[in-house]
# Entry
Amino acid sequence: MAKESEVKSMIEYIRRAIHDFDVVLGNLESLNSYYVEISDWIKSKKVKYTTEYSSAMAIKNILDSIYDQESNQRDEYIQAINKSLIDGVALENIMELSLDEKKEVVQFVMKDLYRHEKYDPIKYRRKEESITNQEKIFTRSILSNIIIIFEQYLTNVYEVLVVSSPQTYFENKTIHVSEIFKDLNVAMSNLLRKEIEDNMYNSLLALDRIKNKSQIDIDRYIRVRQEFEEIYYRRNVFVHAEGIANETYFENVDKKYLKKIKLGDELICDEIYLSNAIETLSKIVASLHFEVLKHFDASQEQYATLANMGFEALKQEKYTLAEYVYGILRHEKKFEFKYKAMYEVNFMNSLKLQGKNIDSLIEGFDVSIVTDDYKIAKECLKDNHESVYNLLSATYPKSFCAIAIREWPIFIKFRESTYYDRFINEHKEDFDVVVFENKDAVDLLNDCPEEEAVETT
# Structure
């Protein structure tokens, strides 16, 4: 039997792990908000300048096309493009084009009527280059912050694991006797600091170390490390090599990510890639937290913050992230049936909302011995809206309160049906009420008013 002091220490380690997880979730939310806001700003700026300076853009493109011609053909080409229309006006009436003596440099003189930036191809090029550079800076910023957030969180995880099991990590390490006599606490603190510094210089190697020392395996149930490693090394490429795929990238990234890339290619980091990269970071964080809770034998209630992460992902329509979170939670065997059933329902719902077939999973989901809320959830998964309506009518509000029916993801398809309209009309006084709660985060298991609290599905 564990000593009382050991139990208290274990509780403290779990409390620290949950706190660190809450902090990193806040960082993830801030990163995602920053990504969305700046991405939208860049897109709106692009639309603005391409709309306002469409004439200058058209002229710039025409002038660029001159350089695509052979030198001895450029005079003839200029004669042809002079007739090109810009806002209904021939180019030759906007500017006078010419070439230098060697036919290598394009020159122009703007006509007086068109001497403003709306028609200025050089000013437009500067604006275009500026927004392109801003996009590159933004990309580097997102990729760098993904790694920063990951390494900050991993450092916290690493510290908790080392402090909880120093004999594992400090094996064969020595402390000078003189340091012990000065201050043992300082000596231990220095040893801890050095352990972290020596092993966090390469965070991927640190992952290997905690796997070997503490059996923290982020790929235990669902593989995610290879995908994250590609992001890790792509970030290095953008920071150190202007986004050009180098040998380091090719040597460290799994072959499946290299099929359409050659050495020296410019790597693409578009909106889809960056959004997926942030989601992959969320998966890594979720997996690390799950593994730490498992390592410290946390109670099923202490997994609530992780379950909340999956539930919020469902509400925000991040269905692949929800699938991942509930995908690892559903593998934990120590949970009571109601928790297992809750995670299974949300896992199936995340698959369904992606358009994946869940018929076999639904068929194997036995609700014969569970409460009404799970029976209703199963009918929701099957899109049996009439059955959902009948069960809700018979059990409301004990099974699900108005807030849950109005907001929870399990009812998304039901809310699109006429049976939902009928139900809310029958309980209009409840569905008109909006609850403003005096707390920072909504508890996954207590999202309804206290007298109507139900289990989350």
